[in-house]
Each structure stands twice: as C-alpha cells, then as structure tokens.
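Quick note —
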Amino acid sequence: LRRTAGQPCLLSPSRAASRCIAAMAASRAPAVLGLLALLPLQVLAAAGGLTPGVLPARYGSMGGDAATRSALLGATASASSAWPQPRFATQRQDHFDGSNAKTWKQAYYVNDTFWKAGSSAPVFLCVGGEGPPMDGSTVVDSVHCNVAVEWLRETGALMFALEHRYYGCHNSEACPVANLSEPGALRFHSSRQALGDVAGFVEYATQEFALSSANRWVTFGGSYPGMLAGWARLKFPHLIHASVSSSAPVRAELEMRGYNDVVAQAYAVAHERVGGSPSCRQAIAEGHRKIGDLFSSEQGRGRLATLFGQAAAWYAEKGNQVGFAGQGVAQFPAQSNDPTCDEAMCNIAKICAEMTNVSIGDEVQRLAEVRCMQAEAAAARRFASPVRAAKTPTPGYGNGDQLWAWQTCTEFGFYQTCVQGSQCFYTQGLATLDEEMSFCGSMFNIPNDVVTSNIAYSNAYYGADHPQGSRVLYVNGEVDPWHANSINAPLAPELPALYVAGASHHAWTHPSVKSDQDSVVAVRAKIRAIVGKWLAEPADEATVTLRI
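Predicted structure written out below.
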C-alpha cells in the first residue's frame, strides 16, 4: 500500500480514493459532516435512554474525535503506576434539587511535590472537561494545564486536577449515574452542575488538606474546561481567587459562521512558522468552488469519481455533496495546527506547500492529492497505534461523543456553517444551519426553537463575551477557530486578555518543548506574571457558605 518516494498519490486514483475515505473516517480534526465522516454512536433520546444513531464528528468534542479519544482512553487504562492515583470526593448528584440526596464519587488527582502544609502558597485547580481523559499525568505532564504544572516549583503550590462529572464516566467508579443508557441519564449534565462540583470540591479540599484563607485558589483550563475555569471565578469569587481561561468560547451562538471563517484566515498566516499564504487560502477556496461546479454536470461528476473515488452518480446526491465538500474534501487543521508535526499534510505549512504547487495540476487535483496523502498517514497511524478501549467505562458511555453533542443542544450551539458569501473556503451553501443542528431533533427530540432558547439563557446566565467580574485572564490563539467566540482583547484592567500570534487551540497549556513557537513561550511568561500579581492582591470576602 505504500508509494515509492516522490510518486504522487494521483497516479492511482482508485487507491487514492480508498485512502481518502479512510482518512475522513479517522479524521482528527473536527471538520467533516456527512456520509464519509458520520461516526456510529449511541445517543440519548430526550424521552429516555440511548438509541442507535449517527453524529457529525465535530460535535463529539470541541477538541478531538472518537478515534483519538479512544486511543487516549486506552493509554489511561494502562497508565504509569508512577503517576498520582485517583482519589475521590463525594459530590451531590444534583446541586439544584434539595430533595435529591443522592451522591457520587468524583475523581481528582493531586501533586503536592513542592507543597508545604501550613504554608500560604496558592492552590492550582485544573478543571476537567471534554478533552483528553484525565489521569495522574494531568498534574505531572499533560496537555491540560501544564502552564500551571511547570510553575509548581517556583510557587510551592498544591495542585489538583478535577475530573468532569460526565466526561469522567470513562471510569464507572466516578460517574453521577450508574448507566448512561437509562432514561434521563443526561439530566444532570450541564455546565452549571459542573460548576457546582468545582465549588463543592473547593470546600471539600479545604477541609481534607487543612487549607486556610491564605491559600488562594486559581483555576486553569483550556477549551470547555477554560470556560468552566473562568466562570468558576465569576460565579464564586469568594472561593476562586483568579482564573486562566484558555481558548474558551464563552459566547454561545446558534450559527457559528466564525469557526470556518477563522479556519480560512489561518491558511493565510505565515508568521510564527504557521506557513500559510494568501495564495494558499485562495487555492483551497478555488478548488472547492470548482468542485461545487463539477457537481452540476455528468462530465464534472465523472472527473470527481476519477480523482476521489465513488461512482459518478454518487456525486449527484445532495446528501453526498454535503458530506463530501460541505466541510472540506480533506482535513484542514487550524484548531489542531502543529508546526512541528511530521505526518504528511498534518499542518497548515505542509498543506499550503501542496496547494500552491502548480505542477500537480489545478486546484481540484491538488485537493485530491492532499486528501490522498492524509489517508495514507491515517492508515499508517492506525496500523502503528491500534486503539484500545478503557477498562471500566460506565455502561452506555461508548466513546463519550454523545456528551458534548448534548451540551451543544442544551446550552451552547456552536453549529459550524459554510454559507454563501462567508469567508469559508469549503464548497459554500452545503453546510447549512438546518444540516448542522439536525441531530438535536433526530437524536434528542429537542426542537430548534428550544435549542435557540437554551443558547440565549446560557449567554444571559454567564454574560457571554462581556461578563462582569475581575481576575479572569482570557488567552486565545490566532489560528484557533474557537477564538471567534471568545474574548480577544481586554474588557477592563481586571479582565485582561492575551492574543497569541500563530498559536492553535490552547497550545500554551501543553508541556514546554524546545520547538514551541516563540509566541507560545512568551505567553506562558505573561500568564505567570499576571497571575503572580493577582496572588499578591487581597482575597474577596467570603459571603456565601455552600452546602455539600
């Protein structure tokens, strides 16, 4: 199945097509909707339990897909015994129903390497969410909150990582319900319940570790955990002294046109080793425009069949067109862009080198070449790293993708469209709002007007991108599409923001390596300077006592 070095994929169209399909199924980017990328899932119907269904890959998580997460779950199941082992705090199943006395055990991890009991050192809390599953590595060396981990020696801080109440259900011992297939199993799954867990954990840990008011809590998180980290400070200023909210799209939105607009913009960014260019962005857009034209003629559909596989008639069906080109005919990483990755077509620079190489052919041929090379890389990755399942997931958990889908319908939206006249460089007019949010009705029985109302309530409850409060630092990356719904400029001196040139989705929370972009290295220092200043400020007075 391997090509001779330098041999283009397109010399064998049938082979290219099969590999392209494999690449879409194994896509790591939250990019593709339709027949080539519908992942089989178990999803919750609003009236009751889990029913078989399908879900667009990008609505399984803000930061990854099922294949990636399943591999990480396998790593969790065989985690190093040298890592801190899970401990458990008792939490209420429902923080808002005083008649519900049920409790559950929430997993958390501790790094007390530099902590001295009785000191006035701070407490760092890494908030869990929908990203890679937490384990003991979270407080030692992981993508979650390493900007805090690497500060422990200097500050002498005590560090906790708190697993999310539902995304932690990959461990059946730490889930608020016994079976995710049971009717109403997701009714305790919301950001508001997760924030209740944060507040409850602070009170628990304060007693368990004999902390005092001198030990100031700082929350850290990236992506959805970044949203929770910031909101924890805004909602519980008497408990949380400060927060670093990384890559957090705090403004809920039904139709998130900005996501694909920023993806297109990212492919014109050249600095910080991103490697894009305006000509690259234009070539991708032109290729997708031509594909839209090719759909309309028998000759055009025949050309697509030759380059991408499938029968020519397949490209005449609207549903197939949506799945094939509505969110790009290949993966176009921006959120996950890594300038140092070594796979074929794995980042903006490598894709742009291919898309601006006129010797390959026109823009459509170049897109086919990118797709084919990504398929080869995906096949090699699966062969080298077989997916392993977690050992003890909660029944009905599957790969957990249904959990984020639920929150898009009940709280946040974020449906990524590619409409006519937008900056989106895919085939415009296919990925419409109705297409993108259809699973809310078909899988969860939540009508569109209710989804709209849920999003409006979330913005009213949290303040969207204009909250009131203090000591929350918002940090966002230039090529991360989620910055379209975040806070990219300071709202006030007490609500600062940092915008990281050329950076992808919370890249600065990852472990430091020599190949980091200069902007990422610099922003880590800025984060510590700002939080260090805040730690010297007086704490807010405690005005609320929580019942736990």
